[in-house]
Structures are given as structure tokens and as C-alpha cells.
Specification:
The complex is a heterodimer of chains A (663) and B (248).
Chain A: H1 12-22, H2 28-31, E1 35-39, H3 43-55, E2 58-62, E3 80-81, H4 93-103, H5 110-130, E4 155-156, H6 162-180, E5 183-186, E6 189-197, E7 200-208, E8 214-218, E9 221-224, H7 245-252, E10 257-258, E11 263-269, E12 292-296, H8 299-306, E13 320-321, H9 323-327, H10 337-349, E14 361-364, H11 366-379, H12 387-413, E15 422-431, E16 434-435, E17 448-450, H13 468-488, H14 502-521, H15 527-542, H16 548-568, H17 580-604, E18 618-619, E19 622-623, H18 627-630, E20 632-637, E21 644-649
Parallel strand pairs in A: 1-2, 1-9, 2-5, 9-17
Antiparallel strand pairs in A: 3-4, 6-7, 7-8, 10-16, 10-20, 11-15, 12-13, 12-14, 14-15, 18-19, 20-21
Helix pairs in contact in A: 1-5, 3-6, 3-13, 4-5, 5-13, 11-12, 15-16, 15-17, 16-17
Chain B: E1 2-9, E2 18-25, H1 32-45, E3 67-69, E4 72-73, E5 95-100, E6 108-110, E7 113-114, H2 117-124, H3 146-156, H4 163-167, H5 174-185, H6 188-191, H7 194-207, H8 218-222, H9 230-245
Classes of the chains: A alpha+beta (663), B alpha+beta (248).
Chain lengths: 663, 248
């Protein structure tokens, strides 16, 4: 298979502009005749459905949630990047482009990333116009903060709830189109198959989750904006419902899945507290602006802390190892996520963890509280302030900056982070891999597009903080509305697609049989118990660091688990009713296959890059990339026994490949 | 900790419901929903029907979880969704009563899961600023007073869970609707369509069968995002002035 990235000709900075100005368009009278299916209504899906509706296409939007506003984009905390340079600190489209390429460890496509940086500024304008209440300076202009892995302040934010506010913006734009009848909204409908006719994506099979009824939906093209697959690890910061099934169904119909092994493990999450744990909660990266990460210098102190004999405050400065500041003096606590996560693992592996399980490090605000307290006392003209006064003033400043995060931490752990250091540990957070797409965001199946976290194209092997919101909205508001025309311009003579064709009937039948097959197993183990076991295998063999032996073993064990699943899973209830256990079962079944492909991809990529760390490929304890042999995208064609890889070589014409150093 | 759970079971929207008692052993570090996971695992192992409840993000922001715990939407802890309520708030030996959100506009789907799509319908009546993608001026072209932006945010922090409706003896959605209207009206961008928005959203809110507000204030007490009833007072003023503005 020849993978055509369809990158336009010309200098990097002009590609998108020139392409946009010369691509085929669909006239307004023809847009009215064309139907588009959008699956998923998070940031990428809602913004795409709303914008395509505004343009005049007939849109059908689908979500398995009861409302588009529940999509997990809502949980993003920290912010959204844009190259506005409002701070006059040297930011530019080129710098955002460069930071993203470097942050992604040189494993993303230059042209896609540059376009992302270009449209980033328009996203902020659009969101402001929709009424997103971004943080503002006293003069009324937009405020910014800094995020990991970069040296400018380009992150726009709405307290610690930026994702929520941006999603409400997209959801309200979508609601407006629903009211106008331009978008028909199907809540509580889960996509269970993709329908292709003559090689083109023409529709989907869904299950109405309230009634259990299978439905056939046809359109001229299909857009998937169905998020990432972090839940293959069971424990992640993803919502419980996040799943890979829509993308995986496309893979089963021939779509290629790119770079599955690129997973982002976020360094600052609340550690696992017990076997019953169902999900992990992120503490925003913005906390690393002020929090200092450390573990005890000695194993003895760490043991005493784990036994509850000592507390963080009992250790003197000289007994603490601020390991990020020590190892990476240039970026300190603000190194990129993959680097910070691995460093936490190293500390825990050295038996210096500070929670009972051994898997936790401190994120300490004591120094920040003191620093802010002193500066507040000075600006308030308080002479010789007492230690308590400094503390009190400092806590007020920290509360104003991170109050909601501190409150969330206290609710979950029962500990007060103003008084004692937070305990954190890395957790699976985001997946950079996804459906392979070309420059138009079209997969290798004509008429099937993938947006947001569901595709692979922009973040390479590691995503920078505050860039997921940017990419989701860039794809939905500013890319797909144009690029969908490159496919649809040739479809204006295609009549309405019928959902009663043999292809649709066959797909519906296949789906019904698949569900009936699962229900008929009537074994003894719950779906959840299989999902937990899969997650443990993934974390152990495909987690923060990987090696060939472990990956082979992990694959084997996952295949055994899949076999056991199809023999012994128990799903209560029937197909024709509201049945959350059946929903979970189809998702876990797909995760079992994805996990296998994930391990295979990690095995074949014999280098360390970004979120993919192979123990065999290191230099002085740091990741070692192999640009000579691995500067390509691995796009996998699924096969039950032997998935096949197709390689898209990555060409870097504008940046020089360097060893990523944050020292 | 050993607990007795008294849970509302209802097969579907037309069936009659009833309470059933269950015993469960929980850990104080568990979230409330993880405790329900333990119960469901027990039920599935016994090949019984697990308790249906809505949940997703489990970090208090998606608004999916919706249950009445010991008579209070999302339970007794202030400013906390059910998913963020932890078992350390209870003690061994407790009996906990768990019911669905009860309101005529929220029909029960099964057990603790209810249909809240009427809240979306209110949004579609005007919970937006009419701006197409691409029409926006530069983000800094319209300065917004930082306090206005901050109070717009306070209203916009609503997670659409419907606890306000469940808490209200009249089943009113005034807190939800007023929060959205205030969010948009605090910002200069939102003022253009203000009167029309107020009229349309109120009309649809009434049509969806939500009750009237009689200033009970339970909505504010139970709101997991602590949204203030000041929003309702403001909406009442806006409504009157929008009537006189004659703009429907």
C-alpha cells in the first residue's frame, strides 16, 4: 500500500494558505444535497459538526453520552496554546511549530504541525466570540501562563477548567445548529460498525443505547472524532466510557492505525490507593510552575515515610532529593511530561517512593508558599512578618492560583496540600497514536476522516501540555470544514446514499451476530474483571518503560486473555434494553485487540522516542532516538494473526533533527 | 467498613420501582461510585442484575453522575458530586439510601439513571452566541473587565447535572437556565441577543415541564459547583425588562 500524505507543494509557511486558496470547493446549492456523519461530540466532533452545519451540509452527529457536553474534553484543566504573542515574549507561529515538533521528539509531520500552529490564533478568537470566559488581566485583555517544555507564555486558560469552557463553547455552537435543523443530534447512540460501499465510507451501524435497537445511518462521508485509547490501560485519567471502538471498527474495515505505542504518561496524577481503584485523577501540569518534585535522599527515610513514622515536613532540606532540578537544571520542574514521568519511575524503582505502594513522589508547595508570602508581606508594607503571617499570605496566593486543584486533591485523598506535600505519580493520560490520516485528515479509506485525539498526526511521540485542546479545535473548526471538500467536490452527483443497500444490511447483521455472540457466552467473569487484567498487563509490559522480552510476553498474555474473554465473560441482560454491561463488553473486546497491536508496535520500534521508552536504547540514562532507521510513521494494517506495517517516511525540511535536551 | 445500601430499583421508565437492600464491604479511601462498583461486581458474580447508574469522568466535571444519597442530590458533602464523595464521609454500620434524581422532566431510564435531555433542549433555545466559525474579530479586540469575566466564569462552571432540579420541590430548572443566561450576559459579546435569549429559553424551560421557582434555595445548597441563586434574581429582572423590550 502506498501511503500518500498529500502534503501540498511550496514553502512550509505558505502550504496551507495556498492550498486553501486553490482546493476544490463545494457550492452552497450542492452542500445542501450532501450528508455528513460526525461520530463523537467532544471538542473536535462538536466543533466540526457545528461548523459543517453552518456551511450548509446536512450533518448527523452521534455520541454515546446523553449529551454532547459530557465528552471527556470537558475534563482538560490547564489551558490551550496559541501563537498570539500577546506577551511580547518572542512567540510566533514558527516557534509554536518548532516547540511542537521538538516536543514530539521529531516523529510528527512538519506540514500538519505548521498548519496547527497557524490556525491556533483563530481558535482563541473564535472561542472568545462564543463567550468562553478566559482569564483576563486587570486591563481586560487576555491573560497567559506558561506550560512545560517551552520558554514562552502562550497558554490561554479559564482557571483550572479550560476544557470545560471550550467544550461548552463548541457545544453551544452545536446546539445552535441543532435548533436550526442543520445538525440532527443522536444522543446515546454508539457506533458499532463502519459501512463501506465500493471502497468509500458511506455510513455507520449504531445501537440506540436506551432501546438496544440497531440502526443504519448513511451519508456521503463519515468523520470520526472519537478520542483516544488510553483506557486500554484500564487505569488512566480518561473517563470510564472513553474507548477505541469506533476507530477500531474502522481498522477492521481496512483503515490503518498509526503509532499505537505512543502513549503519554502524565507525571502529576494522584497515586493509586487500592485494588478497587476505577480511574486516576490528574493534577494539572500548571502545578509544576510552583510545586517542587522530590523524594528522600535515603531509602531509610523513604521507608519510614511509607510506614507512617515520618512525614514530608520532618525531612530537612539536605535530606531531600529535588531530582528534576538536579538532573535538568535548565528546565527543572518544568521538563516535558515524558521526561518528568520517567524520572518519577526511576525514583520509585530506587525504592524512594513515598506512598504505601512505593509508587509516589512529593510535589511540594512549601517553598512557593514562603516565597509568595514574603513578597506579599513586602508589597503590603509589613515589616518583620512572622513565619505564620508569611505562611498565611503565601497560602492565599497559592489558593488564588490553584484553589480548585487543591480542593480536588483534598476531596480525593483527605489530606490538606497547603499543610503537607502532595503525593503524585505518573498515569496514562493521552494517546498520540491513532488512525492514520493524510494532510486532509482523511484515512486510507476514501470518505473516512479522523479528527482530534482519534488521529495520529500532530503530536509525534509526545504531546506538549495545552496542545490537545488546540488540536481538537483546529481540526474541527478550521481544517475539516475545508478539507472535507476535497472528497465531497467529486461527490456532488452522487445521490442520497441508501441505508437499505446490501452492504448496510450485511453490516447490521454482522453487528447483531457479534453482540449475540458475546451475550451467549454466559461465562463466569465480569467484563470489568477482564478490563482490569488487561490494564495490568499493559501497565506492566507496555507502560513507562518497555523491553523486547516483556513486550513479547505481554503480547502472549494478552492473546491468552482474549481467548479466555471469549470463553468466560458474563454479560447480564439482553440486547434489546438499556444494558451498560453489554456496552462495556464490546469496548473491552476491541481493547483486547488494540493492546496486542500496541505491544507489537512497541516491539518493532527499536528506539526510544517521546512517550515510547525502550530500556535497550538509552544513553546516559536518557532516551536514545534512532533517526537513521526509525524516522517514519508505523501505520498498521490489522490482521488477527499477523498485522502488517506500512511505513510513511517523515521528511524534515525545515527543522534539524537534534537530541532533545532539557538539561 | 460494612454498609447496608437501600437502593431504588426500577426496570424501566414505565415499571414501578421499589427499594432493595444490599450489604457491601467498602474501604474508606473508595469513592462512592467505586463502592457501587463493588456492589455491582458482587451482583454480577451472583448472576443478578447490576444497578444501573450514570457516571463517566469520575472527577466531578462531566455532570453524568446523578443520584440522591440519603435524601440529598450528590450526598451531604458541600460542593461535591457523587463521584467525588468518598467513603470516609460514612462510617461502618451505616445504612445509605440511594435514589435517582426525581423530577417529572427527568424520566427514569433504569434504577438510578434518568433522562436529562430536557436540559439540552433549553440550551438549544438560545444558550449560545450566534457567531459562525471564522467570523470572530481578534481575541483582544473586545476587552472584558476581569471581574465580569470572572463572574461569567462562576456561572459558566455549571456541569449540567440537574441536581438543582432534583433538589427543588417544584422541579424547577431556574438555576440551570439563569446560570447560562448570566454567563453570556456578563460578557459584551453576549449582550446583543440578550432579550431574545431570555424570552426563548424561559419559554422552552416552561414547555419542557420544569416547575416555577418559589425561592426555596435548595438548588444553591445542593449545586456541586455552588452556583448562586443571585443568578435567579438577575434572571427575574431580565425577564421583566425583556417583556417591556417587546423583543421575542
Amino acid at each position: 500500500m502506498d501511503l500518500k500524505s498529500n502534503i501540498p507543494e511550496g514553502p512550509l509557511a505558505d502550504k496551507w494558505k495556498n492550498y486553501r486558496g486553490s482546493m476544490n470547493l463545494v457550492a452552497p446549492n450542492n452542500k445542501r444535497r450532501l450528508d455528513i456523519i460526525v461520530v463523537g461530540t467532544g471538542l473536535a466532533g462538536a466543533s466540526a459538526a457545528a461548523t459543517l452545519g453552518e456551511l450548509g451540509y446536512n450533518v448527523k452527529a452521534f455520541t454515546f453520552h446523553d449529551s454532547p457536553r459530557r465528552a471527556h474534553s470537558i475534563a482538560a484543566q490547564g489551558g490551550i496554546n496559541a501563537a498570539k504573542n500577546y506577551q511580547n515574549d518572542g512567540d510566533s507561529v514558527h516557534r509554536l511549530f518548532y516547540d511542537t515538533i521538538k516536543g514530539g521528539d521529531y516523529r510528527s509531520r512538519e506540514a500538519n504541525v505548521h498548519r496547527l500552529a497557524e490556525v491556533s490564533t483563530e481558535i482563541i478568537d473564535q472561542a472568545v466570540a462564543q463567550g468562553v470566559p478566559f482569564a483576563r488581566e486587570y486591563g481586560g485583555l487576555l491573560a497567559n501562563r506558561s506550560f512545560g517544555g517551552v520558554q514562552v507564555s502562550r497558554t490561554f486558560y479559564a482557571r483550572g477548567q479550560t476544557g470545560q469552557q471550550l467544550l461548552i463553547g463548541a457545544y453551544s455552537a452545536l446546539s445552535r445548529q441543532i435548533a436550526k435543523g442543520q445538525v440532527k443530534m443522536y444522543n446515546r447512540h454508539e457506533m458499532l460498525d463502519l459501512v463501506t460501499i465500493d471502497g468509500k465510507a458511506r455510513g455507520i451501524i449504531t445501537r440506540n443505547l436506551l432501546t438496544g435497537k440497531l440502526e443504519r445511518h448513511a451519508a456521503h462521508c463519515v468523520v470520526l472524532a472519537t478520542g483516544g485509547y488510553g483506557n486500554v490501560f484500564y487505569l488512566s485519567t480518561n473517563a470510564m466510557g472513553c474507548n477505541v471502538s469506533a476507530a477500531w471498527r474502522a481498522v477492521k474495515k481496512g483503515a490503518l492505525f498509526a503509532n499505537p505505542c505512543y502513549t503519554q504518561i502524565h507525571p502529576t496524577c494522584i497515586p493509586v490507593s487500592g485494588e478497587y481503584q476505577s480511574k486516576l485523577t490528574l493534577m494539572s501540569e500548571s502545578l509544576r510552575n510552583d510545586g517542587r518534585v522530590w523524594v528522600p535522599k535515603t531509602v531509610e527515610d523513604a521507608e519510614a515515610i511509607r510506614k507512617g513514622e515520618k512525614r514530608a515536613e520532618d525531612l530537612a532540606e539536605e535530606d531531600r532529593d529535588y531530582y528534576l532540578e538536579r538532573r535538568y537544571p535548565a528546565f527543572g520542574n518544568l521538563v516535558p511530561r515524558d521526561v518528568a514521568s520517567r524520572a518519577a519511575k526511576v525514583a520509585s524503582d530506587e525504592n524512594k517512593g513515598v506512598v504505601k505502594t512505593g509508587l509516589g513522589v512529593y510535589l511540594d508547595f512549601a517553598a512557593a508558599i514562603e516565597r509568595y508570602g514574603k513578597s506579599e508581606a513586602f508589597s503590603k508594607g509589613i515589616d518583620n512578618p512572622s513565619a505564620e503571617k508569611i505562611r498565611e499570605l503565601g497560602e492565599q496566593v497559592v489558593e488564588a492560583k490553584y484553589g480548585n486543584l487543591f480542593q480536588m486533591y483534598e476531596k480525593i485523598t483527605g489530606e490538606n496540600p497547603y499543610k503537607t506535600a502532595m503525593k503524585i505519580y505518573p498515569a496514562v493520560h493521552y494517546t498520540m497514536g491513532g488512525l492514520w490520516v493524510d494532510y486532509n485528515l482523511q484515512t486510507n479509506i476514501p470518505g473516512l476522516f479522523a479528527l482530534g485525539e482519534a488521529n495520529f498526526s500532530d503530536h509525534g511521540a509526545n504531546r506538549l501540555g495545552a496542545s490537545a485542546l488546540m488540536q481538537g479545535l483546529a481540526d474541527g473548526y478550521f481544517v475539516i470544514p475545508y478539507t472535507v471538500g476535497t472528497f465531497l467536490a467529486d461527490e456532488i452527483r452522487t445521490p442520497k446514499i441508501s441505508a437499505d443497500s446490501p452492504e448496510f444490511m450485511a453490516a447490521e447483521k454482522e453487528t447483531r451476530e457479534r453482540l449475540e455472540g458475546l451475550l451467549a457466552i454466559k461465562g463466569n467473569q465480569s467484563v470489568e474483571s477482564f478490563h482490569r487484567r488487561l490494564g495490568k498487563l499493559m501497565w506492566e509490559y507496555c507502560g513507562m518503560s518497555r523491553n523486547a522480552e516483556g513486550l513479547k510476553k505481554g503480547r502472549e498474555l494478552m492473546r491468552e486473555l482474549k481467548e479466555e474473554f471469549y470463553k468466560d465473560v458474563y454479560i447480564p441482560g439482553t440486547m434489546e434494553e438499556f444494558n451498560p454491561e453489554l456496552e462495556k463488553a464490546t469496548r473491552v473486546a476491541d481493547f483486547l485487540e488494540l493492546g496486542d497491536l500496541f505491544a507489537l508496535d512497541a516491539l518493532e520500534r527499536k528506539e526510544s522516542c517521546g512517550g515510547h521508552f525502550r530500556e535497550e536504547y538509552t544513553e546516559n540514562g536518557e532516551a536514545k532516538r534512532n533517526d537513521e532507521d526509525f524516522t517514519y510513521v508505523s501505520a498498521w494494517e490489522w490482521d488477527d494473526d499477523n498485522p502488517k506495517v506500512h511505513k510513511e517516511q517523515l521528511e524534515f525540511e525545515n527543522v534539524e533533527l537534534k537530541t532533545r535536551s532539557y538539561k | 467498613m460494612k454498609l447496608t445500601l437501600k437502593i431504588w430499583r426500577q426496570k424501566n421508565s414505565t415499571a414501578n420501582g421499589h427499594f432493595e437492600n444490599y450489604q457491601v464491604v467498602a474501604d474508606e479511601h473508595m469513592s462512592f461510585l467505586e463502592m457501587l462498583d463493588v456492589l455491582n461486581q458482587q451482583l454480577i458474580e451472583k448472576k443478578q442484575d447490576p444497578v444501573a447508574f450514570e457516571h463517566d469522568c469520575r472527577e466531578g466535571i462531566c455532570g453524568a453522575c446523578s443520584m440522591v444519597i440519603n435524601g440529598r442530590p450528590h450526598g451531604q458533602q458541600k460542593g461535591t458530586t457523587a463521584c467525588q464523595l468518598h467513603m470516609r464521609a460514612f462510617k461502618s454500620g451505616d445504612t445509605i439510601t440511594i435514589e435517582p434524581f426525581r423530577a417529572s422532566s427527568f424520566p427514569v431510564i433504569k434504577d438510578l439513571a434518568v433522562d436529562r435531555s430536557s436540559l439540552d433542549t433549553i440550551m438549544q433555545a438560545g444558550g449560545y452566541i450566534s457567531v459562525n466559525t471564522g467570523q470572530a474579530p481578534d481575541g483582544n479586540a473586545i476587552p472584558v473587565d476581569s471581574e465580569d469575566s470572572s463572574s461569567a466564569f462562576d456561572a459558566a462552571t455549571c456541569i449540567g447535572c440537574g441536581a438543582c432540579v432534583a433538589a427543588c420541590p417544584n422541579g424547577s430548572a431556574m438555576l440551570y437556565t439563569s446560570a447560562k443566561i448570566n454567563h453570556l450576559n456578563k460578557l459584551p459579546q453576549g449582550k446583543v441577543e440578550h432579550n431574545k435569549r431570555v424570552q426563548n429559553m424561559i419559554k422552552v424551560m416552561d414547555k419542557e415541564g420544569f416547575g416555577k421557582c418559589s425561592n426555596v434555595g435548595a438548588c444553591e445548597v445542593e449545586c456541586p459547583k455552588e452556583i448562586s441563586t443571585d443568578n435567579i434574581a438577575a434572571l427575574n429582572r431580565y425577564y421583566l425588562s425583556s417583556v417591556f423590550a417587546g423583543n421575542d
